[in-house]
Every structure is written in structure tokens, then in C-alpha cells.
Design goal:
By secondary structure, the chain is α+β, with helices and mostly antiparallel strands. The chain is built from 16 helices and 16 strands. Strands 10, 11, 12, 13, 14, 15 and 16 form a seven-stranded antiparallel sheet that branches. A three-stranded antiparallel sheet has the order 7-8-9. A two-stranded antiparallel sheet has the order 1-2. The longest helix is centred in the middle third of the chain and has 24 residues. It is globular, with a radius of gyration of 25 Å. Pfam families: C5-epim_C.
């Protein structure tokens, strides 16, 4: 729950954006201009006053420190990144309320210093470093484990402590927290190096995985700290990290799926990238936020261009995913049988749920046989299958079969399955021709009472022709027609991913021509939700 200032700000901005949407965003923003924003919106309350912690109540310990419930055997644990986020929010709330002469300011200042005091006992010294430990097992890493994103975020907390108090010890603490970011992974630090590329690793145990938001976040917090620290060493690594991001960022792009990566397979090299697709819209928004902030910090046009292109991926992804998913109702597929589902949830919508709408997942009941079958519109050449479950309601055993030549052929069989990464996401690369039906069957729910299926996708092995077919089918939609892309013979010779790239190129060129302020785009996206893109349907 947010404070009244933030409520007023959101009302203010939503009013402004409603006017923009009504008058300006015709045909995906063909006409753009700027209007004056109410000063209170853009200046006085352009950020959020957070709620004070409630010591001893849900989510906090008896001292008001955030205490997260991970469920299962892990239970309640301190996540030092979440604790740092609280501290930063408390300090910003304190500063704003002080400007407003609000008596509540003192309470936020106390909450901030309570977190700083907690860190004094939590941090671990190693040589000249200070480390921020995680004291629970996660992602295959046994505790204690450490993370570049958390090191830099907590350094920011302590540089704020120095700004508020003038005490040099907090300056020294911030510097010691940054130090292991400049030490290579094989020497116990967080720095991955490959040729001229460096990357600040969010995860180093059991292996580095080039988590994108971790590197971007570390850069931004490092830059924030160095405003005060003014270290040439920190500045040098910041500049190297920015240059490395510029050279690696689009390795995370997955144009053939109109999607973007969250990280790479553990141990992968940038010279041979193996990207793990992101299935969390929250991380898409975080990537966009960091691109926006890096653009403002560096003035580098690369980050402006990348923001617009990533934004375009989000505009077109759901449309493409549904069109490319051969088990989607929109592709003419028909759900034949489903056994063991909770009837209050909709399996059809879950199959297409790339937006990860929390209302659209499907629920299996573990006490019954759990099967569904889908009749395809015609025989298909299946190239890949992707599905995602809710954490932690996933099956340990499941099979996927295809009806080929009048018999069921096993496409996927998993026993004692465990999710390999940050989400219960399963991907299988295949090449099976003549598939007429798909059958999914699950069992062994890891002792959970149910299984929750977020989405289910089956794609064809057709390269660029698959992409071309999706956009040909959707070319009458405003969001596609706006681009003026002709689906002609020229496009039919492109490789997989190149048709989608052509679409994104056209989007970026159009928006750059109009010199769109990415702050406005980001505010629109953040306040109205990821589905509210700046275009309108025809009247």
C-alpha cells in the first residue's frame, strides 16, 4: 500500500495519459507532441512514499526488517536485496516528507537507520572486502552465497548513510562492498571476463549465468555510489561495464520468438550464447527501466534505441506468440479432452497466456488423472514445445505425445524433473512431421495438492515462413498495419528471426523519427500495465 502523495500522483498522471491516449496516440502514435504536465505530478510527487514497516507482523521481524516467506522447507528468510530496497525507499520518503515539513519524516529516518544497523551485524568481512551473504539455499547454490546485484545495492544504502550523516565509516563500507565486483569469478569475486567483455554476475554459484538485470542494476548502483566516492577505479569499471553491455545486450534477443532473454545457460560464453527466454513481464519492465536510466546517466543513444526496440518486442510479442502457437484456439486448434482440471479455471486461456495474466492459469487436481488432448487444424511439423508452471506447483513426471500416422508417438518424457532455472519453465527442441494431435499427461506433483499451468506452446519448424504466416494473418490489425510492412516476395527469402526483425526495425525507425521521450513511454507502460501500449483501435 502506498501513501497519499503517490495516490495523488497516479491520479494526476493517469489523467494526463488518458488525454494522451485519446488525442495523441492515433494509429500507434503517428502524431506526437508534448503537453504541459501538472507541476505537482512531475516534480513534487514523481515517486512513491512507501508504507512504514509493521514490526512483528506479516513480512517483518520484530525490529521491522523485511522477512520473506519462501514457503516449504526454507520458510521465512532475510533477503538482503529486499532489505536494501526498503532502506532506499525509506530514505527517499524521508527526504520528500522533510521538504513537505511532514512530521512523519522522522519515522522514515528511524526505519532507514534500523536497516543500516541490521546490516552492521549481517555483513561479512573477507580481506579488504565486505560481503552480503544469503543464508538460505537457492537455485542450486548452498548457503552462504553472494550476488553482484546485492553488493552494489547495499553499497548504495551505505553511501546514502554517508550523505545523511557525514560519517566516513559509511563511505568506507560502501567502497568495501564494491571491491569484490572488480575481482574475477574464479578468484572469488563477481566479475566475469571474456576478451574485452566484462559482466557483473548476479549468480556465481554453482556457475555464472550472465543474468541481464543483475549486470544492469550493478552498473546503475555503482554509478550512484561513485557520485560521492569519486573513485577512478570504480569509474573505469563502470565504463567498461557499459561498453560490454552495449556489445552483448542484443545477444539476449530472441527475434524468432519475438521475445527476450533473462539470462544464459549456466557456464555459457558470449561467443557461444545460449539464452534462456524470459517469461516474467516484471523483468521486461525492469530491463526497460534500466535502459531508460542508463540512457539518462550516460547519454548513450544505444540505450535509447534499445529501449524502443525492446518496447516493440513487448508490443508485438503476445500477438506473435498466439499466432505461432499451433495449439492455440486462434490457430484453429480444438481442445478435445481434459481430465483432472479444476473447472473454475480456463485451460483454453492458459494455453495462450503469454501475458501471464494471473487469472488465466489452469489448475490440475493431483488426486485425479491429469490429461488434456488438442486437435490441430492440420498436420504440422513440430519444432519446439514450451510450457511454464507456477512455482512451486509443478509436476515431477510428465509426458507429451503426438498423434502421428494413426498412433501416439512420445515427444517428451520427464521423470523426477526439476526446473533448471529461476522459473518452472520447460523447453524441448524437436523436429517431428505429420503431427495431428497433442496429448499432455502429468503426475507426481512434488507432494503438492495441485499443479498450476501458466501457458503451453507448440511451435512449427518453418523458419521465416512461420513468422511471415503470423503477420500475414494479422496484417489487418492496427498495430501491424501502422508499420506499412509489405508481406511480399522480398520477405519470403529471409531467415528465421529476420521477418520479426524487419517489423521491429520499422517500429524503431518510426518512433525515433518522432523523437519520443522514453520517460513518457515508460510511465504509460508502468502506470497502465504492460498491455496498455500507446496505440488505439480504429473508431
Amino acid at each position: 500500500m502506498k501513501g497519499n502523495w503517490n495516490f495523488f500522483y497516479k491520479v494526476c498522471r493517469l489523467t494526463e495519459l488518458a488525454l494522451l491516449k485519446r488525442y495523441l496516440f492515433k494509429a500507434l502514435g503517428v502524431i506526437f507532441f508534448s503537453i504541459s504536465t501538472v507541476t505537482f505530478c512531475t516534480n513534487s510527487a514523481a515517486w512513491e512514499v512507501v508504507e512504514l514497516p509493521s514490526p512483528g507482523k506479516e513480512g517483518y521481524d520484530d525490529k521491522g526488517i523485511r522477512y520473506h516467506n519462501y514457503g516449504g522447507s526454507r520458510g521465512y528468510q532475510y533477503n538482503p536485496l529486499y532489505v536494501a530496497n526498503d532502506a532506499i525507499s525509506f530514505s527517499e520518503s524521508y527526504r520528500f516528507l522533510t521538504e513537505q515539513s511532514d512530521a512523519q519524516a522522522a519515522h522514515y529516518l528511524k526505519a532507514y537507520w534500523d536497516v543500516v544497523s541490521w546490516y552492521s551485524d549481517w555483513l561479512v568481512r573477507k580481506n579488504d572486502w565486505l560481503l552480503v551473504p544469503y543464508k538460505f539455499d537457492a537455485r542450486g547454490a548452498e548457503s552462504p552465497w553472494y550476488s553482484a546485484i546485492t553488493q552494489a545495492r547495499v553499497a548504495r544504502v551505505f553511501i546514502i548513510a554517508y550523505e545523511l550523516s557525514g560519517d566516513e565509516k559509511y563511505l568506507s563500507t560502501a567502497e568495501s562492498l564494491l571491491e569484490p565486483l572488480f575481482v574475477e569469478v574464479d578468484k572469488g569475486g563477481f566479475l566475469y571476463r571474456e576478451g574485452e567483455i566484462i559482466f557483473f554476475e548476479q549468480h556465481v554459484k554453482p556457475l555464472y549465468d550472465h543474468t541481464l538485470n543483475g549486470h544492469m542494476s550493478a552498473l546503475l548502483d555503482m554509478n550512484y555510489v561513485n557520485r560521492i566516492l569519486k573513485s577512478q577505479k570504480v569509474q573505469t569499471y563502470f565504463e567498461l561495464g557499459v561498453a560490454s553491455l552495449e556489445s552483448t545486450f542484443w545477444l539476449f534477443g530472441i527475434p524468432e520468438e519475438m521475445s527476450f532473454g533473462l539470462m544464459m545457460q549456466p557456464g555459457a560464453k558470449f561467443s557461444k550464447p545460449k539464452v534462456i527466454e524470459n517469461t516474467y513481464k516484471s523483468y521486461d519492465l525492469k530491463h526497460l527501466e534500466y535502459l531508460k536510466d542508463l540512457y539518462h546517466v550516460t547519454g548513450n543513444e544505444f540505450f535509447y534505441d534499445s529501449f524502443i526496440r525492446y518496447y516493440a518486442v513487448m508490443v508485438y510479442r503476445d500477438l506473435f506468440k498466439k499466432g505461432a502457437n499451433v495449439v492455440s484456439a486462434s490457430a484453429g486448434a480444438l481442445l478435445l479432452n481434459s481430465t483432472g482440471f479444476d473447472a473454475s479455471y480456463n485451460l483454453d486461456r492458459a494455453i495462450d497466456n503469454y501475458s501471464l495474466n494471473p487469472k488465466d492459469y489452469a489448475v490440475f487436481n493431483s488426486g485425479k488423472k491429469n490429461i488434456f488432448e488438442i486437435q490441430l487444424s492440420e498436420k504440422k511439423r513440430v519444432g519446439s514445445i514450451s510450457l511454464r508452471f507456477h512455482w512451486s506447483e509443478y509436476p515431477r513426471q510428465f509426458t507429451i505425445k503426438g498423434w502421428v500416422d494413426s498412433k501416439w508417438v512420445e515427444l517428451v518424457s520427464e521423470n523426477d524433473w526439476e526446473p533448471p532455472g529461476a522459473a518452472p519453465l520447460y523447453d524441448a527442441v524437436l523436429d517431428v512431421t505429420g503431427v495431428e494431435k497433442i496429448k499432455f499427461e502429468a503426475s507426481n506433483f512434488s507432494n503438492h495438492s495441485k499443479l498450476m499451468l501458466d501457458f503451453f506452446s507448440v511451435s512449427e519448424t518453418l523458419g521465416a515462413s512461420r513468422e511471415l504466416g503470423v503477420w500475414e494473418a494479422a496484417q489487418d490489425q492496427m498495430v501491424v498495419r501502422f508499420l506499412g510492412l509489405k508481406f511480399d516476395e522480398e520477405l519470403k527469402d529471409l531467415q528465421s528471426g529476420q521477418v520479426n526483425n524487419r517489423l521491429l526495425d520499422r517500429f524503431v525507425a518510426s518512433f525515433k523519427e518522432k523523437k519520443i521521450d522514453i520517460n513518457d513511454l515508460f510511465d504509460f507502460l508502468g502506470l497502465e500495465g504492460v498491455q496498455a501500449y500507446p496505440y488505439v483501435k480504429e473508431d
